[in-house]
């Protein structure tokens, strides 16, 4: 640049500071920067530098574009879009808000009688109305009247401005004199004409166009050698410097080839760029016309207005002969040699004699033939993201909020970065957002639709053939996705009827031949393959030919799991539903049916190479995996429901088919549980659906909302103390990995808590306005059935959230309130509770100290049906003293740490609450109040669930007699109680009366009496059984196992600390003979009397348990088993025979590397391979002693 600067800027002050006047003079005389051109052959015109008068670029100056912005104008709006556009307004995409393109003023709430001009002047008197054609101040006529004015205004991004700064901001401009002034004048006028400067990339579909004189984004251009290897990256002045002899400019469709050639002509016409001004004539020619027999002069005259009669074949010949390399031909849309006009073929073939400068723009796949004639090859690479942002910033400078939304979307989606490859795509975004200011279509859909439209408009005379090739390429794309194929051979193309040359011609495929024996074909981006696949699926499903429909359904039915719809096929489905067609109904119907299918929950991880190209899908799959591998099927059922609902509503709205899909969506919502977070943004389609169809609020069985505050680190000192009593484990070196230090677990736990706290701190509101909006517009103000509201570590509510909470509570008939570590919160939300006292049916208070005000407020919940008080907290005495006030109470759950005398303060009238169905009592000490509990139970004839755990309760005989009178009882848990022989006899005597019992948990009861252990025969409806220690159980363990085989509905069997070898083998034999067919959980913990040989025999026999989901064979490390190879082999074979098994706990069993390798090999072939988990390591507060 410095070498070019010297001769062109001899009066530059900056240059004079660096070089002496003699050095400058000498360099000017000897300079030959371009072939055959020196500075002595140029003359100097003076121009004023660019000043503050540079205009602001505003795309909405064009009335046609303002009119296009009203495409999504609400039908119920009163103002006329044509009138608004005429008077300078464009639509913002929100409500009926319009904005003046000139002053930026916004107007809303239009009435039929409003006059746009008057309203504008009234609201914005300081700017009544600026003329909507700002460019008149820069009109060509005015430039003629003031020839000293700056002639060209170029807005470029930073790198372009830097590289041209030396040329554009100095007081002298070099322009070549020539005797053909009139012809030059006409050419300059033609290239400066708005029709030439503006590029309409999408034909008549939009009036959106970019004025290349005012706006041009940096292209990434690389020079290449004759072997097609890259040499260096060039900036624009360096690109212009390469223009000598024949320069081939290659690039993909829409990469900016035409824009660059036109920009070159525009710069030449302006006279402001000395590098281009070295040419005395510049002829821009589009070779898209197919009239091959025209002369060169005819081609030029037909494309440049005003040259007919002025430019003849003879005069052109004279110019070319005289000026040779001072004539520049810009040849655009070159396809192949035999398709170009003959005169262009001659121009290229004979240029070694004529020595003109030719720049030939050609698609990358067509460059092979022309490369042999090139003296320089330039390749346009992917369009820089900075250039895309620069263009959008200039085009939408009046809309900061819009630009912010674009930046957020670009920053959060790496796929979008990779697909924004060309200026065409940036223009496509601008065109779409001009027509749809608040459009919901995703960026990738906009881009890919635009590319197909661009390709079809490129060859309008072959539109039917283009559609045929597009359909065939769609079939190729669709088959490729289902076969995990992203590169294709000629045979692959032939199989689906794709003509490779045609697909390359239309830019639908790319061809790769370098260092390959056979060429490969690919789509230019994975998203484009998905897009064409989606178009093809839509074409098949919407066809009138039944054979095509069946073929489309075959593809669709293969997308049959949640992993597939959130992974590889998500975008195919989106693209298939990108327009209102019949296929949308079939696709959404198929999606909504997945929730009822068993195979839809099957987990099969997607190809990592595929997911790496789509970060959003990768994150969604990780979240899905967390839900899927959790122990709570209900939780991932809710998550899958939300996934389907979000996707289905999005597809319905984006295809403009929501009214047709609404009945299916409404039916799907019936009976589902949904989180209110679905509504946390008014941009979400599900939010929009509930607003458009308010009856949908009454269909889900329950809505849930969970809010989190700052969570504290967990206190693990108590379990550490408990573990330390067992001593320090001792293991051999090869088994040292069986013990993980608890500190690592604590650190990770605390890091997780800190991370969650930091993320939650970003949310300014617990209940943002969009979240409650659907409930404010419910039909007839009828209340929605159920809400679960849970708060964790939240102690106060800001006023705005409290107002929304009050509105939310008032919308529901039944409210479940669940508070965990939320001191003072009840008092903080007191207004919201007081206004809806009759709606609260369930209240759960955990580790939350209550004030007197809060206790009294809870007592005023007159319709309460369930009360749970749990955790480390002060005993809410006022609450317990007045329990009889809850006339509708059905459930009471008390789980307090070493609570004393609670049943001493519970009022006598509590026994009159005859609706009690569930009574759970944990960690409560009774002392002398045992008879009160017995009396209460005797009056609770509807009692169905009773738990008594970790207590000093001693009157078991009276308790069992009372329970025997409860004919509705289905579940009993009696654990950790000090029962003696008499108590156990009472229990055994009562069990035959409880024939409806389904769950019996007697864990940690010491059964000494052998006869009492035989009392299970009558419990034929039993589904869950938990028994534990005691001589009686151990002596009768085989008999108990045999009794269990007669419980056909048994789902859970837990036998801890009580089995011997014989009883263990009996379990395996019964299963092998067809028993335990419904068993899902087999828990045989701390059975230290069982030998390793018995376990080995047990593993060899155990099979034929189709529903077994979890096994637990835990052992204390003081009785750990170092597995022999034969035991491991039997265990692995056993697991392979249990098709539903996914959770195995074998803590206390020592495995070495070879053992685990054997397990992993089997796991790969197991039906639950993606879920199967073996847990065998201890988490311990001290490190083990290692025996070397």
TrEMBL record:
<dbReference type="GO" id="GO:0043066">
    <property type="term" value="P:negative regulation of apoptotic process"/>
</dbReference>
<dbReference type="InterPro" id="IPR053882">
    <property type="entry name" value="Nlrc4-like_WHD"/>
</dbReference>
<dbReference type="GO" id="GO:0006915">
    <property type="term" value="P:apoptotic process"/>
</dbReference>
<keyword id="KW-0547">Nucleotide-binding</keyword>
<dbReference type="InterPro" id="IPR040535">
    <property type="entry name" value="NLRC4_HD"/>
</dbReference>
<dbReference type="InterPro" id="IPR028789">
    <property type="entry name" value="Naip"/>
</dbReference>
<dbReference type="InterPro" id="IPR027417">
    <property type="entry name" value="P-loop_NTPase"/>
</dbReference>
<dbReference type="GO" id="GO:0070269">
    <property type="term" value="P:pyroptotic inflammatory response"/>
</dbReference>
<dbReference type="InterPro" id="IPR007111">
    <property type="entry name" value="NACHT_NTPase"/>
</dbReference>
<keyword id="KW-0067">ATP-binding</keyword>
<dbReference type="GO" id="GO:0016045">
    <property type="term" value="P:detection of bacterium"/>
</dbReference>
<dbReference type="Pfam" id="PF05729">
    <property type="entry name" value="NACHT"/>
</dbReference>
<dbReference type="Pfam" id="PF00653">
    <property type="entry name" value="BIR"/>
</dbReference>
<dbReference type="Pfam" id="PF22524">
    <property type="entry name" value="WHD_Nlrc4"/>
</dbReference>
<keyword id="KW-0479">Metal-binding</keyword>
<dbReference type="InterPro" id="IPR001370">
    <property type="entry name" value="BIR_rpt"/>
</dbReference>
<dbReference type="GO" id="GO:0043027">
    <property type="term" value="F:cysteine-type endopeptidase inhibitor activity involved in apoptotic process"/>
</dbReference>
<protein>
    <submittedName>
        <fullName>NLR family apoptosis inhibitory protein</fullName>
    </submittedName>
</protein>
<dbReference type="GO" id="GO:0072557">
    <property type="term" value="C:IPAF inflammasome complex"/>
</dbReference>
<dbReference type="GO" id="GO:0042742">
    <property type="term" value="P:defense response to bacterium"/>
</dbReference>
<dbReference type="Pfam" id="PF17889">
    <property type="entry name" value="NLRC4_HD"/>
</dbReference>
<keyword id="KW-0053">Apoptosis</keyword>
<keyword id="KW-0862">Zinc</keyword>
<dbReference type="GO" id="GO:0046872">
    <property type="term" value="F:metal ion binding"/>
</dbReference>
<dbReference type="InterPro" id="IPR032675">
    <property type="entry name" value="LRR_dom_sf"/>
</dbReference>
<dbReference type="GO" id="GO:0005524">
    <property type="term" value="F:ATP binding"/>
</dbReference>
<feature type="domain" description="NACHT">
    <location>
        <begin position="245"/>
        <end position="365"/>
    </location>
</feature>
<keyword id="KW-0677">Repeat</keyword>
